[in-house]
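Reopening this ticket.

The earlier resolution said the output was attached, but the attachment link was broken on my side. Pasting everything inline this time so it's all in one place.
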Amino acid sequence: MTGVRVLAGTRKGAFILTSDGGRDRWEVSGPHFAGWEVYHVKGSPADPDRLYASQCSGWSGQVIQRSDDGGATWAPAGNQFAYDGTPGTHQWYDGTPHPWEFERVWHLEPSLDDPDTVWAGVEDAGLFRSRDGGQSWQELPALRGHKSGPSWQPGAGGMCLHTILLDASAPGRMFAAISAAGVPASMSARHCVAVCAASAGSSSNSVKVGAGPGGRWPIRFTLASWAFALMSRFANSTTCGVER
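Inline output:
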């Protein structure tokens, strides 16, 4: 019977829950990083022992943690997230220009086939990538730098890129969800060139998006390769960081 592992990020630390396929009884490991808010914990599909976690506090700020033994031990990884070039501005809650400022990492998405490659979705909404196991991070600036970026506004929880999805059926295709700018998608995770017309100024947040029934993705592409399309905003709800 196949085992099950749940990685849960909470306001009081991270927890690792394991069970057999019956899911009648669970073993709970944690809290890891007790007293810290953990925005996301994610394991690598290429190496289940490789875990990444984003922890944050109002006193100590943002810290990326990495485990190479399934969460038995952890070590801090790189934590420098610098926007590419001159960041510019987006709209603030009252509609006035506000500078792009890094606050925290909301989502970590490891590569499907390389445990050392991982993407990070951050607040203020930006997409970053590491190719050395989280030791260094580089922004993929086309998303934030799209012509609609200056009109993006934060939702109630901040202007965060809170979801990244990689399509296993189409290598290079990536989806992201931004509160409250919409759901852009890329047909090439390598180039990440945005052609989105985000629903900026919307009062609703994007939901935690996922694949549809049978693995179908809820978006229609009409653009050339390595372009972005935009899905109109979903229902007014968000979800927290629990991953299977």
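Reporter confirms the inline version is readable. The two ends are 16 Å apart (CA to CA). The chain has one domain: 4-243.
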